[in-house]
Amino acid sequence: MIFIIIYKKKNIFYIYINANAHNFIVENKLWLKIAVGAAAGAVSGFIGGGGGMLVVPLLSFCLGCGGKRAHATAIAVILPIAVISSVVSLFSITPEWSELIPTVIGVTVGGVVGSFVLKAAPSFWVSIVFSALMAAVGVKTLFF
């Protein structure tokens, strides 16, 4: 597996690419965790969601977090991202209330069901479904 790590030294950012960067990652986990969180927060604030879709691959590849653990962490990370992004958005953009309430109900029920499915599903299939969903959304966004 190839790791790409961006780090700062003497006010210059460097990109470190290495197929065996495990020792570097272990020594700098706190910095990488903060970077993963910052990237997820920035994406969520910019496009109104999707920070979790960035957290899962970053936790897996940069921090060596297992598939199901990365998904569970991403789900837990959604709450503070959503609260902060929602507060900022509510002060700058008025939501469509007739769409908001039913969507919140559906997302809540779906989140509960999805968390039980995540716990029961094999890690391999969780990764396959997640990757297929990301690819489908990317194709839809680019071409339709």
Can you give me a brief rundown of this structure?
By secondary structure, the protein is mainly alpha-helical.
Task: Give the arrangement of secondary structure elements.
Blueprint: E1 3-9, E2 12-18, H1 22-27, H2 29-47, H3 51-63, H4 67-92, H5 97-120, H6 123-143
Antiparallel strand pairs: 1-2
Helix pairs in contact: 2-3, 2-4, 3-4
Structure, explained:
The chain has helices at 22-27, 29-47, 51-63, 67-92, 97-120, 123-143, and strands at residues 3-9, 12-18. Strands 1-2 form a two-stranded antiparallel sheet. It starts with a strand and ends with a helix. Helices cover 76% and strands 10% of the residues. Helix 2 (29-47) packs antiparallel against helix 3 (51-63), helix 2 (29-47) crosses helix 4 (67-92) and helix 3 packs antiparallel against helix 4. It is mainly alpha-helical and 144 residues long. It has one domain (24-143). The model is unreliable at 21-27 (pLDDT under 50). 12% of the residues are buried.
**For the terminal residues, how far apart are their CA atoms?**
33 Å
> Which structural class fits the helix and strand makeup?
mainly alpha
Describe the main β-sheet briefly: 2 strands, antiparallel
Shape: globular
Low-confidence stretches are 21-27
Q: What is the rounded Rg? A: 17 Å
